[in-house]
Specification:
By secondary structure, the first copy, chain A, is of the alpha/beta class. Chain A has two domains: about 180 residues, Dihydroxyacetone kinase, domain 1 (Rossmann fold, 3-Layer(aba) Sandwich); about 130 residues, Dihydroxyacetone kinase, domain 2 (Hypothetical Protein Tm841, Chain: A,domain 3, 2-Layer Sandwich), CATH 3.30.1180.20. Chain A has eight helices and 15 strands. In chain A, helix 6 packs across helix 7.
Amino acid sequence: MKKFIDTPETLLHDSLSGFALAHGDIVRYNPEPRFIRRAQIGPAGKVALISGGGSGHEPLHCGYVGVGMLDAACPGQIFTSPTPDQMLAAAQAVDTGGGILFIVKNYAGDVMNFDMAAELLEVPHGSVLVHDDVSIPEHQGMGRRGVAGTLMVEKIVGAAAEAGADLAACLALGERVVHATASMGVALTSCTVPALGKPTFEIAGDEMEMGVGIHGERGRERMKLATAKEIVDQIATTIADELKPERNQSALLHINGFGATPLLELYLIYHLAAQFFQDRGVVIARSLVGNHTTSLDMAGCSVTLTLLDDELIRWWDAPVHTASLRWAC
Amino acid sequence: MKKFIDTPETLLHDSLSGFALAHGDIVRYNPEPRFIRRAQIGPAGKVALISGGGSGHEPLHCGYVGVGMLDAACPGQIFTSPTPDQMLAAAQAVDTGGGILFIVKNYAGDVMNFDMAAELLEVPHGSVLVHDDVSIPEHQGMGRRGVAGTLMVEKIVGAAAEAGADLAACLALGERVVHATASMGVALTSCTVPALGKPTFEIAGDEMEMGVGIHGERGRERMKLATAKEIVDQIATTIADELKPERNQSALLHINGFGATPLLELYLIYHLAAQFFQDRGVVIARSLVGNHTTSLDMAGCSVTLTLLDDELIRWWDAPVHTASLRWAC
């Protein structure tokens, strides 16, 4: 295993300490129980948005804590769900009377622990479940996984909460973004969890994992490595079949790198995906290209499409000031 | 070779086309001769900043074209210098009468071609040569390489140019930033140039390349893999010996990922480096952590320290609106 590391046991704490030190104007780090919160708690009555999940997907979620997005994030150990005490402590720290909204990626552990925290919360609360990964069927096992589309939910609902939307409105908006969003990924290599020290899965030099999850979960098909165009065609077709955009439908196109794929390649994928959707009459109104929902050091990427209307565009464009997404502030 | 690619010959053009499409509010792409320029040319009399170099270091330089940084960037093929006709065409496109400032990383081909372009320029011009890589001796061969510190020059001089500083002032400021900046990197893996299809260098599973260049050039020593703390101690000591910061000296600390190293590890490195310099009395006044000057898919990182005074802090904090650095606009 080739990583910058002292001991696997201290990696997460030391890394979060560095994160909080580097972004002291934006966040604070509470080590025990572990959460990252905004440096300045939101105004009285603002709905507080809290997300979280296993670490290893940075900048998700801690990199999206700040004005216009999350109020707090609860990082678990790498690829391990955070615990209810983290969520409760985070909620207590950022609650200003407007209620708590959990944004939860659809994984058994995350769902169970956020549910448990919700049951213990003594203030108004709700949960948005993100399940944007259309590579697997909707009614298989736990259902679809929450992947890179989570960022769209956090940004759009975050903007509305900042503008004073109440809990019911934030919840409804979150559901609307989830419904309008579809993602699918492909891996060229595995990732390596530091505490395990070896690749999560084996993959041959001429193979790719189509429909991979963000923890290296098997996807829909192990295939021979194809050209970028063939890969994008397969992914974008799956997304288009799911969302069925009409002609002149506006959309946000997000190409997300899993960690080890250069920007040069991500922009190639963006170009191909934009052409694919434009050829079907979709108007790519907004774009985001980069490493946002990663899988440690995995080479690969995902494509996310969110169908937009004027309201969603307004929330997407609204000011945001976080460590990893920052504009118009 | 596992990459998203159709053909190596079209990768750069297709990727830049995607880049320009994704950031149409910020940049324009001129394919022949190849350069990226601001969507809105600067006001009359503004000094125009142009950088460039081999591709494969994205987001450097194209990701830093925009208000508050570069006016244009000239990307060569991967790890290959751009040619004088690119620089001349870019200069012609962005010149508004204030003169042209080239920001050049110290590599033989880059220096030769920017020099040739400068000789052909018929407007006032100057060049800042960046040579911040302190891993190799100053007077060896071509001298020190220009690496991740280039971004500091582009940001700080870019802010001054935007505020109306003239050519002589921009040139002097650029020299001052170069003098105040030192960088050193370490590689855990090689990178793979698409047209070659195999790793640039071989490195064993338990080795690292200390002092590596951003094209995978050999550094100062091939060593056994060390802990993050040992690595940071060696790099930060070299930088401190070079810059000799006094107690209470303000500085910008930049941890740059080479492409395949997760943010989790980069923030660990940041934490260790910040502690190292703080222990020596340095005040870490500003921070930047992320993949900014990459080496394709290389795992590794570099540490850059720029000594700051009030003026440099003011320029660093000034508004910037580019694809990959954006704040306060």
